[in-house]
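Morning F.,

Quick status update on the modeling queue. The single chain you submitted on Monday has been processed. Sequence for confirmation:
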Amino acid sequence: MGQKVNPKVFRLQINSNTWDSIWCATDDYKQKLHHDLFIRSYINESFKHAGISKVIIERTVNLTSVIIHSSKPGVIIGKKGSDVEKIKQKIAKKVESSVEVNVVGVKKSEIDAALISKSITHQLEKRISCRRAMKKAIQNCLKMGAKGIKVSCSGRLGGAEIARTEWYKEGRLPLHTLRANIDYAFCKAKTICGIIGVKVWVYIGS
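Structure tokens below.
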């Protein structure tokens, strides 16, 4: 059977796609990897409604730099940068090195695959129909200039006994064209009936 490759990993170093963790290590690789997982989970859990698209972590010898891409940067920064200071202190305790936190705004949140998938999961957790959530996301995405989008929901949709997959696709989505700039994201919605997986592919352009 044919397998679907993660489009972002498939296009690394093409269309300005890079790793979300930018550093190298020898003996302490495992420790640094666990630190990265902690940083991402802490930021995503602390700012669930801040519209976080991605968290990029860069390391030098004595500095850990965390770049947060968010559609609502003001929520993360807080009053006079108070929330950013809290993030720095929390991460510095775990990492045991000096920490720098930068918050970058996402201009077009409607065509960001991560933000679309998170928006759909929030709606599913509020018991909104998956079809309605998917169609609304597709309409908003195409209005903002995306050339194509595909949204897929898998699980016990609508509380059904048997799990199934539903998906909608609009426009072009050339997954085999390497120069095509395709954004991809996966998110889990924790509903009463179980976990529903949400996948989003967005074709931005070549």
